[in-house]
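TASK: fixed-backbone design
INPUT:
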């Protein structure tokens, strides 16, 4: 606490200034690690209940439970990610080799493409040129292709650094979960200090449940859909498994239907004739299941244990992702949920209690 004497306000000003300087220095020292720390706290918040259950099964060994979770996660996530990344690299190399050797076959466009407003005729002409003389189209669009290539390479590099950041964050989150009780007490003390004992505990619980709901309902479901599509493509030899899984992951995170990937892929499987009927049926079932599974899982996860309507959580997640990326998805959902609770509490505060709910009074 500040040692403030009303007769000497200069002491108060100096104290506040020193605290601000200390806070600025701490922020500057920790600024290179903010992304890592935020991801670690999100992962620790989401996985802490599972860590507690594993720890109880191991006789209260928190360190062993955290280490086991790291090993299992690296096995379940690292192997599919490595396979899909290798498939993505192979797809890019295959595309470049075919373009250079002019062996890439592109079918003629449908005539209905001309009827599209604004860009229909331009797209049709470019498609015809690509199917008949791909090198000429590449030479004509070389500046745009170069810019697109640089953007794609930058995206691949960011994807690789993001995957590495995830694994490092998971290790840091495992260390946090070992000391979970101390971290929980610190967070509760901060929340109660800011918002009071009752509201602080309620807001902290709301933020925790919201982060877990977003992790399972948005990120978890999107990752599950992407893994199902990617592993199905890998298992049946469909080319571009890595590209398909990444596109599906992005579509699912931004709340667009993954059917934009699965339905054209199912049509290609049946029209291409490269797969037998049994394989085609199995691929169709798996892809349709991957495209529709979010309709069942997302409402369950987003509304479980969260004292806020599901549209509020979803809007907060989308708004946070637009403004601050994937991390903003969790922060935005938690902030909007807390803001909704504050607004509802303010609207209901001071309202008269209905007559049927008033306690009986003695005359």
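OUTPUT:
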């Amino acid at each position: 606490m500040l040692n403030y004497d009303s007769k000497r306000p200069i002491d108060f000003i100096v104290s506040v200034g020193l605290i601000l300087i200390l806070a600025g220095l701490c922020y500057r020292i920790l600024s290179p690690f903010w992304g890592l720390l935020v991801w670690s706290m999100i992962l620790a918040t989401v996985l802490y209940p599972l860590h507690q259950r594993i720890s109880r099964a191991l006789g209260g060994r928190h360190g062993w439970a955290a280490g086991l979770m790291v090993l299992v996660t690296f096995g379940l996530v690292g192997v599919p990610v490595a396979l899909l990344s290798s498939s993505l690299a192979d797809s890019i190399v295959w595309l470049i080799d075919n373009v250079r050797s002019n062996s890439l076959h592109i079918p003629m466009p449908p005539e209905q493409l001309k009827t599209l407003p604004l860009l229909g005729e331009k797209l049709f002409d470019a498609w015809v040129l690509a199917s008949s003389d791909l090198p000429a189209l590449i030479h004509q669009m070389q500046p745009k292709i170069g810019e697109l290539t640089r953007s794609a390479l930058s995206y691949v590099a960011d994807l690789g650094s993001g995957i590495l950041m995830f694994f490092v964050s998971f290790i840091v989150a495992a260390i946090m979960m070992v000391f979970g009780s101390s971290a929980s007490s610190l967070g509760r003390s901060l929340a109660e200090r800011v918002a009071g004992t009752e509201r602080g505990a309620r807001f902290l619980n709301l933020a925790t449940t919201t982060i877990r709901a977003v992790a399972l309902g948005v990120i978890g479901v999107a990752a599950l859909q992407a893994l199902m599509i990617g592993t199905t493509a890998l298992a049946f030899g469909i080319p571009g498994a890595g590209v398909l899984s990444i596109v599906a992951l992005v579509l699912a995170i931004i709340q667009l239907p993954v059917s934009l990937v699965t339905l054209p892929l199912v049509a290609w499987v049946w029209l291409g004739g490269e797969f037998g009927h049994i394989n085609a049926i199995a691929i169709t079932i798996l892809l349709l299941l991957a495209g529709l599974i979010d309709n069942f899982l997302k409402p369950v996860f987003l509304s479980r244990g969260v004292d806020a309507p599901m549209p509020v959580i979803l809007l907060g997640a989308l708004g946070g992702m637009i403004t601050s990326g994937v991390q903003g998805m969790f922060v935005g959902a938690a902030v909007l949920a807390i803001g909704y609770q504050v607004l509802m509490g303010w609207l209901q505060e001071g309202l008269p209690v209905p007559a049927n709910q008033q306690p009986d009074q003695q005359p």
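COMMENT: Confidence is low (pLDDT under 50) at residues 357-363.
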